[in-house]
Amino acid sequence: MIIDKITNISMYRIVPDHVVDFIKNLPKDTTLGRHDILDKDYANVEEYQTKKLSEGKFESHNNYIDIQILLDGSEKIYYTSTANVSVDVPYDEKRDIMFFSDKIDEYDSVTLDGTNFAMIFPHEAHAPQVSVDENPSKVKKLVVKVKV
Question: Under CATH, domain 2-147 is a member of which superfamily?
Answer without folding.
Answer: YhcH/YjgK/YiaL (2.60.120.370)
